[in-house]
Amino acid sequence: xxxxxxxxxxxxxxxxxxxxxxxxxxxxxVVRIGxxxxxxxxxxxxxxxxRELYGPDGPxxxxxxxxxxxxxxxxxxxxxxxxxxxxxIVYALAIVSSALLLVGWRTRTMSVLxxxxxxxxxxxxxxxxxxxxxxxxxxxMYLVLTRCGQVWSLDARRAARWADRAWPPRDTTGIxxxxxxxxxxxxxxxxxxxxxxxxxxxxxxxxxxxxxLWGLWLVQxxxxxxxxxxxxxxxxxxxxxxNVAHNGALLVIMAEVCLLYASAGWYKIQGxxxxxxxxxxxxxxxxYFSPWPWLADTMASSGTLVMVLTYGTVIVQVAFxxxxxxxxxKNVMLVLLMMEHLGIAxxxxxxxxxxxxxxxxxxxxxxxxxRWAEARLGRARDRLAARAVWLPGQRARESDQESPAGxxxx
Length: 410
Description:
- The protein has 410 residues and is mainly alpha-helical.
- It is built from 17 helices and no strands.
- The longest helix is centred in the middle third of the chain and has 37 residues, at 233-269.
- It is globular.
C-alpha cells in the first residue's frame, strides 16, 4: 500500500470514529457526576452563608456587582433583579439542577441550567473563588456540548426502556420542560435587565448569550422533532453533529487538564522554594490551611518527606501531559495525581478544590477500569434489590405458616 493510500485509510478511519459515535461515554459520565456532585456539595455546605457569599448581605453588594458586570460584561442571572426572593430562587435552582444533572435526568436541559447556576453565582462575587471554582466555571460550559448522559443516568435507563418500541413516545415531560424553560427565557429577555444580546457580551467574540441560550433551546426542539418525525437521514445527520460536538468538547476538556498541569508544574519550577524542596513546608504552618494541626506538624517535622513530596509534585505535574503517549505511564501518573489531590483535601482543608480537579482528571480514566467498576456496582445493586424483594416475601410465607387457616392475623 502506497503512503498516500495509507494516509487516506487513516483519515477515513479517523473520520468514521469521530462521527459514528460519542467517544468516552463512561469518562464523560464520570466528569458529569464529579462536577455536579462537587458543586452540589459546595452549595449545600454554604447554604447558611449563601447571602454573605453571593447575595444581598455580602460585602460585595448588588450595586458594586452591577458596576463590575458593566465593565467585564460577564453573565449572571443574579443581576436581573436585586430582590432577595430572586436570589433565593436562583440559588435553589442551582442546587436542583446540580442534583438532577448528578443523577442524569434530562441531561441536555440540566447541563444548561447547571451552567447558568455556576456562572450566575460565581460571576456575582468573583473574589470568593479559588482554582477549583475556575475549573467548575470552565467545565460547566464544556459539559453543555457533551452527550454525558449515555450511561449511568436516568436518561440512559429511559432510553433502554424505549429501545424496543418501533416509534418513540411523545415525551410529555420533555415538552413541558422545554415550554417552561422557553417561557422563563422569554421573560428574562423582555422584562428584566438580562442583556441577552445576540452578538455582544457572550462567551465568544461576536456571539452573545442571547444567541447561545435561544440557540440551545431551539436545538432541543429540533432534536425532538427529528427523533419523532424524521428517523431516517435527518436523524443520522443530527447524530453525527452531536457526536462531533461531544468529541470536540471531550478533546477540549483533555487539553484543559493537560494545560492545567503543565502550567502549574512549569510555574512551580521557577519558584525558589520549589527549587530547594521546601515549598510544602510553608502552607502546612498556615492556620487557614491547617484543619489538622497535629497532622501538619507531624508531616512538616520530616525534612526528607517534605522534600520528596515537593519535588514529586513538580515532577508529576510536568510529566503528566507527556505520559499520555504511553497508556501504562499515564495510568500510573493519574493515580499519583489523584492521591496528591486527596492529600491536599485532607492536609490543607481544600476538599472542593480537590474534588473538582479529580473530576477533571477522570476524563483520562481507563475504560477497562470503568467497566470493571460498573460490573461490580451492578452486581452489588442486583444483590440489594434481590434482598429487598426476598425479605418481604419470606416474611409473608412465614406469616402464612404460623397462622392457621381461618384465623385473623393482626
